[in-house]
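User: Hey, quick favor. My workstation is busy. Could you predict this chain's structure for me?
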Amino acid sequence: MKAIKFLASALLAVASVFTFGSCDDDDTYVWYYPSLPNAMVTVKPIDGAGFYMQLDDSTTLYPVNMSVSPYGDKEVRALVNYREVESVMDSYTKSVAINWIDSILTKPAVAYPADGDTSEYGDDPIEIVRDWVNIAEDGYLTLRFRTRWGGNGVAHYVNLLTGVNPDDPYEVEFKHNAYGDVNGATGDALVAFRLSGLPDTGGKTVKLTLRYKSYSGEKTVEFDYCSRKATAGGNDVERAAYSSRVR
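Assistant: No problem, here it is.
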């Protein structure tokens, strides 16, 4: 899913049934999309043979109506609207026809700096919005967050830091650098962070704790997390996508 354009088209898909207010009570913003997404997936390229989609930790989707990934050899998280069709590939859980698909900002988590200097990652507040897209699966933490956007084209910088708690390797921190763009309307964006730097959970499900600075102070959210499992096809490597307003 691609974040922001003032909100990225992928976010528009999620936001099509929502109305979001700006900082002024009499101003509201409504975004529409032709049809709602019915899944969040990982788009996984297959060397020389198209791509498939990972629906959750164990379910794979083979697209019958697209032979080439719209994202080339990049592995990205994406919103998709699809319908199931008769199976044509036994090595995948389901065969599907894609109605539309849109990637979001997808990037690796980063290790906490050895010198403790996190200034480049910023300290600007965000809110985590309650939404079905907030999930830790297939080796990613995907989040919908809300902050202020000045409408001046400044690209906000978002990151997920690992190694923030020596006593808990599964505690991570969301960091946001707005580069001074902090006084505009409120709006939402989507981002997925690859968690390949975390210790392998060995097939077990553990609690992943997300720390972040909100507009009302420090907060935490817990997710169920299990390390990425090997599945049919594709390259299990880190890829990246980009967005015009979030990086």
